[in-house]
Amino acid sequence: MIGGSWVAELTRGRRLLILGICCSSLFIVGLDATIVNLALPSIRVELGASVTKLQWTIDAYTLVIACLLMVSGSTADRVGRRRTFQAGLVVFGIGSLLCGFASTIDLLIVFRMVQAVGGSMLNPVAMSIITNTFTNRRERAQAIGIWGGVVGLSMAVGPLVGGALVDAAGWRYIFWINVPVTVAAVLMTAFFVPESRAAVPRRIDPVGQVLVVLVLGSLVYAIIEGQSAGWGSPLIIGCFLLCAAALVSLVLYERRREEPLLEPRFFRSAPFSGATLIAVCGFSALSGFLFLNSLYLQSVRGFSALHAGLLTLPMAAMTVVFAPLSGWLVGHRGPRLPLVVAGIGLTVSGLLLSRLDLTTSTVVLLAGYLIFGLGFGMLNAPITNAAVSGMPLSQAGVAAALASTSRQVGASLGVAIAGTVLTARLIGPLETGFVEAAVLCWYIIAGCGFLVLVLGLITTGRWARRTAEAVAEDLVRAR
Question: How far, in Å, CA of 54 to CA of 49, rounded?
Fold first, then answer.
């Protein structure tokens, strides 16, 4: 059924049940990212994977999600949100099952891509279901607040669940645990989530979608493979040239479309452009931190997966605590203060962690983790707020989806850059050469935090708000 005529028939209990089903998708996708990072050392040993292959194990997932998020949302609006959501759950579950059976690192990477195809259909579609289920503005705000809290919860539970599973049963079970969750979610969706579609669905943009894949795919491939193939090799230079050509083509093509996949006019808004860059920098810092920290704690310090998860837990706990506070601050004082705190937290933690060595005390480790968790916890709410700031209501969803895509792009770039720098500077085996090789990686994470701070200050002032108002007026006139 199109629109919201069925919404009036839903009891509050039914609406909350729908919210729970949708949040389960966000939970397993978020849980998967944290768990896989903790399993990297075990995967490296069992499958004989290089650092480059470990990069692809993470980036194959985040890159595919980044490429398909926008098209998944528009497809759901057209063919049905429940149908698309169920399809995403099925594909994600099949991908998870196959990952657990992977006999080589290359097969694991391929199956992670299958997982990601399903994952791209979950979060944006689930958000559309939530916004169409909770029509009361206050209830909708509460539902979205719960939705956001699940991100922190998945990060908090991930280290414990992942560490326990890897130690007790092996890394394959971190994927198999998704299967019963997806089966239950498919059945619950069939019974309790009504079908809905957009009254006026956005047109599919296949050319724009192909160009997005070329931009992101060629860039990440060149960064990850540049060290082994040679930065001056025809393959790597060709990838960078392809990325540049595809980016220019994307901008020129999208400017001529009535309903573009990526609206170029959005980027004239300083708050939106700032939110996009902040999301890339912030999530690059997060993914780089998780990638490096997992290798440091297990491969260098020799901690078990469970011990590493327990040590990382304070970072996730700080994210859980400060994410709601960030949302409150954004609502009452705007995005500037949370962004400043986020930038300072990420910068200080990156500098502190750059001092790690083979005997760093637990106190120093926990200090770095707590400060990082504080910074990252303050980051998410102002990104979404700044992205939609001043946008017409009809364009707010597209702007928020672009911000989500930027998060995934950042997650891909963070692992790509951290792994490449680590590999380039590594002398000898990982266990003995990691500490010195990783120093520059931690400085890059600190640099990402500093960029968050600077962009937060620049894009939240009066000049920035005026650019957002000008873009909003332009978009309204165009419609």
Answer: 7
Tokens 């996730």 identify what position? 316
**DSSP secondary structure letters along 179-216:** HHHHHHHHHHHHHHPPP-B-SSPPPP-HHHHHHHHHHH
CA distances to 40, 45, 101 from 105, rounded to whole Å, are 11, 11, 11
pTM listed for this prediction: 0.87
Strand ranges in 298-445 using DSSP code E only, listed in sequence order: none
24, with CB counted inside 10 A (0-12, 13-18, 19+), is buried
- DSSP string over 47-100: HT--HHHHHHHHHHHHHHHHHHHHHHHHHHHHH-HHHHHHHHHHHHHHHHHHHH
Angle, helices 234-256/206-229, rounded to nearest 10 degrees: 160
| 261 neighbors 254 (Cβ within 8 angstroms) | yes
45 alpha carbon, distance to own chain's centre:
27
CA 223 – CA 419 distance, rounded (Å)? 9
Which 3 state secondary structure label does DSSP give 118? helix
| Reported confidence tier of residue 145, pLDDT bands at 50, 70, 90 | low
pLDDT digits (tens, 9 = 90+) for 194-208: 887 766 667 778 888
- The DSSP output letter for 427 is -
CA 155, CA 355: separation in Å to the nearest integer? 25
Find out whether 60 and 112 touch, Cβ atoms under 8 Å: yes
CA dihedral 326, 403, 62, 241 (to 10 degrees): -140
Helix, strand and coil in the chain, % to nearest 5: 85, 0, 15
Encode pLDDT of 294-311 as tens digits.
899 999 999 998 888 889
Segment 424-457, tens digit of pLDDT: 998 888 888 999 999 999 999 999 999 999 999 9
